[in-house]
Design a protein that fits this description.
Number of helices: 16
Mean pLDDT: 91
Helix content: 40-55%
Number of strands: 4
CATH class of one domain: Mainly Alpha
Distance between the termini: 6 Å
Order of helices and strands: HHEEEHHEHHHHHHHHHHHH
Largest sheet: 2 strands, parallel
């Protein structure tokens, strides 16, 4: 692939409506220059780019028909009594039939309690992120204002409008009935805020998402940033040693970068994020804290996804952690290499995995790894793709435009 596809261009000093040479977006999870090249090739009629963007447009056209989502529409009121507070239940905790009133709930790791669906805040947040991402990308590639307008509507209703906004906290996320009203681990419900904020950067220049709208959203995330840093749940989650700690890192880093706190993000990666590697990864690449779970392959991959997002954001502040290793050889690349033969079915998984493993989650990691570690990872990704596991957004972000080998 051309070197241009590997070049990261991130401009944090410019206002939202301005992009480098009028083209390159200020994205921090995606390569801005890659998106520019995809757009240019789409406009020129490149078959691969046309296939991607036409499929994306179909998704965005469906998204336009959706009604805006809000936390105030849930059927159950949070313990605070305020519908504006985000609320969810811990997914792996179930009623204890041996206790009066089935309380307190007990843990059945890896088994989802269907009761969680009675509160729709988490499901709606996932939908919001997906729709805003697809609409923002469709707007960026086509310059069609209707996609930006719908993305802006979704953002206003969830975050900004007086009647429907979400309070900037996760105090009541993943509550365990009979034990607490919310817990630090519930912060992982919002781990995709990084995807959402990355998508917002694609709306720059849109008439529908003006400077005032972006200013208001920044004010919301400034409050949320302080909550992440100072709240009891935030402090507790930051100390978590397994994937939850890394997902906290990528979430707060994305908020910091969106708010322009580049130096803070750089220092945080040095002092906090990289310190997790010896806690989480063995010299041979195993992740013991994830291997102890009932869905060990899933959580080992899930933890790596957080590391990859953190590494993309580290690129934004001039740090290469893709190739970082401790003195005794611990790195998230080593963790990737240890998982690889299991994920592509070359070796039999020896730990627990009580639900079917979603191989697409590893597919998107391999596409990114190929950009940093070479063609063998791209070839491994194609093995998964050829078996029917693929994802449009991942291909747009990380696939090659042409068929040549590295």
């Amino acid at each position: 692939m051309k070197n241009l596809l590997f070049t990261l261009v991130f401009v944090f000093s410019l206002p939202l409506s301005v992009t480098l040479c009028g083209q390159t977006p200020n994205t921090f999870l995606l390569r801005g220059s890659h998106l520019v090249e995809v757009k240019e090739n789409y406009k020129k009629g490149n078959p691969q780019a046309r296939t991607w963007i036409n499929a994306l447009i179909k998704l965005a056209d469906k998204d336009i028909t959706q009604k805006p989502l809000s936390v105030v529409t849930k059927a159950k009121v949070p313990p605070s009594g305020n519908l504006h507070d985000y609320f969810s239940m811990a997914p792996y905790f179930w009623p204890d039939s041996s206790k009066p009133n089935n309380l307190p709930y007990i843990n059945k790791d890896g088994k989802h309690n269907p009761e969680i669906d009675q509160i729709n805040d988490h499901k709606n947040l996932l939908r919001l992120v997906r729709w805003v991402q697809e609409l923002s990308l469709a707007y960026y590639f086509t310059d069609d204002e209707k996609y930006a307008a719908k993305a802006a509507e979704f953002l206003h209703v969830w975050f900004l409008d007086t009647a429907t906004f979400m309070n900037p906290n996760l105090n009541y996320a993943q509550a365990i009935l009979g034990i607490n009203d919310g817990r630090a681990s519930g912060m992982i419900d919002a781990c995709d805020f990084s995807i959402l904020l990355n998508a917002v950067e694609l709306l720059g220049g849109s008439r529908s998402w003006d400077e005032q709208s972006n200013k208001q959203l920044k004010e919301w995330f400034e409050k949320y940033y302080l909550w992440l840093l100072e709240s009891k749940n935030g402090i507790t989650e930051r100390k978590n040693k397994n994937n939850h700690g890394t997902w906290y890192d990528q979430q707060i880093l994305s908020v910091a970068l969106y708010l322009g706190k580049k130096e803070w993000a750089k220092e945080y990666i040095h002092t906090t994020a990289l310190a997790r590697i010896p806690q989480q990864i063995e010299p041979d690449g195993r992740q013991p804290l994830e291997l102890a779970r009932t869905n060990a392959l899933h959580y080992s991959t899930f933890a790596l996804e957080a590391w990859f997002k953190t590494a993309n954001m580290a690129d934004c502040v001039g740090l290469d952690i893709w190739n970082y290793s401790t003195a005794d050889g611990r790195s998230f690349k080593k963790a990737l290499d240890w998982l690889l033969p299991y994920a592509i079915n070359e070796k039999k998984w020896e730990y627990q995995q009580i639900i079917e493993f979603d191989r697409y989650s590893f597919y998107r990691l391999l596409l990114q790894a190929s950009n940093h570690y070479g063609n063998s990872y791209w070839k491994a990704a194609q093995k998964i793709k050829e078996e029917g596991t693929r994802n449009l957004i991942a291909e747009i972000f990380y696939e090659k435009l042409y068929n040549e080998v590295f």
